[in-house]
Amino acid sequence: MCGSDSSIHLIMGKRLNQSQGTNPRNKIGIATTVVKCTTCGLIYSNPQPIPESIQDHYGVSPETYWRNDYFNLNREYFKNEIQTLKNLYNFNEGDKALDIGVGLGKCMIALNNAGFDTFGIEPSEPFFLRAIDKMRISPDRLTLNSIENAQFPNNYFDFITFGAVLEHLYDPSGSIRKAMGWLKTGGIMQIEVPSSDWLISKILNAYYRIRGLDYVTNLSPMHEPFHLYEFSLKSFELGAVKEGYEIVKFEYYVASTFMPKILNFILVPYMRYRNKGMQLCVWLRKSK
């Protein structure tokens, strides 16, 4: 994201290809090293496991990838994001939007209902088929492709969203750069990613260190949901200098703490106040 030399990045520990629990050294598996950029705070695995085909990772049944309640359509889905977008951009009926990493297509449905002329990219064939068959996404608006191979005209879209997608891509900076080419000058890009400053990860990593373990809980590069990166706000601030965009808004989402409910009384307000939530959402405007 910032272009710094990976040889000077901080080694945090190792990550197994499965859920680690409280005692990962008792588990048999494959591990990769997790490191942190000392310049921008980006966390990633090094080396990164690269599948022979994208379907090796994402050619799985959506029913095994998401919980059952994710398949229910909710009128509130993406509602707040659309309102934020309309506050940041002079919206006109029929403005073009692109959803990168469509999944089941729920974001496309929300954008269509809000008046956008919406297109989508989905690299997973099972997800692509479910979006068409189950969610009735129009096949002529949805492309079975990766962002690396997708093609759209330059300066074509008013809005592009990477919702929980960038952490799965091997070249996040290059993906932003390519998508920025498709965005009109002045257009908005929304990106939601895992935060590298999530409080719960820090607590669990401290627990491992106290026990003398060289493991970390960050990322899941070799098991679902296949997160390759965690991002800091500084990752995008330094990326803006390189890629020609500006950050017009950012916010942190607490989401779940995965801790005993009695602790949420303290953890949730602290995470909100200190920007230590699980997800980071940034809004970028193409400036040139």
Task: Please characterize this protein's 3D structure.
The strands form two sheets. A seven-stranded mixed β-sheet has the order 6-5-4-7-8-11-10, sandwiched between helices. A four-stranded antiparallel β-sheet has the order 1-2-3-9, with no helix packed on it. The protein is of the alpha/beta class and 288 residues long. It contains nine helices and eleven strands. The chain has one domain (6-286): Rossmann fold. The protein is globular and about 55 Å long. The protein has helices spanning 54-58, 62-65, 79-88, 106-113, 125-133, 172-182, 199-210, 233-243, 261-274; strands at residues 10-16, 31-36, 43-45, 96-100, 117-122, 142-144, 157-163, 183-194, 229-230, 245-253, 279-286. The model has no long low-confidence stretch (mean pLDDT 91).
Secondary structure: number of strands: 11
Report on the biggest sheet.
Answer: 7 strands, mixed
Oligomer class: single chain
Helix-strand category: alpha/beta
- List the helices and strands in order: EEEHHHEHEHEEHEHEHEHE
* CATH C-level label: Alpha Beta
Biggest β-sheet: strands ordered side by side in the sheet:
6-5-4-7-8-11-10
What share of residues is helical? 25-40%
CATH topology: Rossmann fold
Distance from N terminus to C terminus (CA atoms, Å) equals 19 Å
Query: Spans of 5+ residues with little confidence (pLDDT < 50)?
Result: none
Strand percentage: 15-25%
Summarize it.
The protein is α/β, with parallel strands linked by helices and 288 residues long.
